[in-house]
Amino acid sequence: MKKKPIISYVAIAAILMLTLGAAYLYKKQSEKIQNEDTYKVADENPDEIVDGIHVRTGLVAAEGLQEVITNCTTCHSSKLIVQNRMGKEQWNATIRWMQETQGLWDLGENQQVIVDYLTTNYPTFKKGRRAALTDIEWYTLDTK
Ligand code: HEC
Asked: Could you tell me the distance, in angstroms and rounded to a whole number, from the CA of residue 2 to the centre of ligand 1?
């Protein structure tokens, strides 16, 4: 039998170790994702509210929250709501658009409740730019 050079054994060992290492890291990572608090909270208490925020959806806990959860979080994430800031007209127009093109149902009397909730808790930003910074600790730049 022809003797294989030692280098090929080393190479095989190295490949084996890399594969095992990658598998181990992958497993650890997926365990970590499963253990994230949000999942735990959602499983244990879907209605938990912390600091005025409904934990599972990230929506402000206020009058109309339940109507919003029921009617507005089945098709898409509540993030889509949280990241939008609109006035009454715009919210009504967005709802109409979803009704006409995306299959959103007639909200009936809940529309008023929902739009009130949205304009109260997610109003348009009043400031056109960020507010001036306060509490700044200035330091002297040493140019020497
Ligand atoms: C029948 C499904 C459905 C329901 C229920 C629904 N939406 Fe939507 N909505 C959509 C789809 C589809 C989009 C487009 C998503 C995209 O662009 O990725 C959308 C987009 C949006 C947007 C983004 C609009 C934009 O201009 O970018 C907002 C805000 C929104 N929905 C809020 C709501 C609110 C508030 C409710 C509750 C009244 C609601 N949605 C209920 C289907 C729905």
From this structure: 69
The number of beta carbons lying within 10 Å of the beta carbon of residue 95 is 18
Please, where are the H alpha helices in 35-78? 37-44, 65-72
Question: Residue 49's closest CA among 74, 39, 69, 41?
Answer: 41
Is 113's C-beta closer than 6 angstroms to any atom of ligand 1?
no
36-55 residue pLDDT tens: 555 555 567 888 999 999 99
Atom of ligand 1 nearest to the CA of 74: 5
- Give the Å distance between the CA of 79 and the centre of ligand 1: 10
Structural element, H or E, at residue 26: helix 6-34
Rg (CA), the chain: 27
Report whether residue 114 contacts ligand 1, using a CB cutoff of 6 Å: yes
- Atom 9, ligand 1: residue with shortest CA distance: 98
Instruction: Please identify which residue in the block is written with the tokens 């306060």.
Output: 134
Per residue in 66-97, pLDDT (tens digit) is: 999 999 999 999 999 999 889 999 999 999 99
What tokens does 77 get? 């994430």
CA–CA separation, 53 and 42 (whole Å):
13
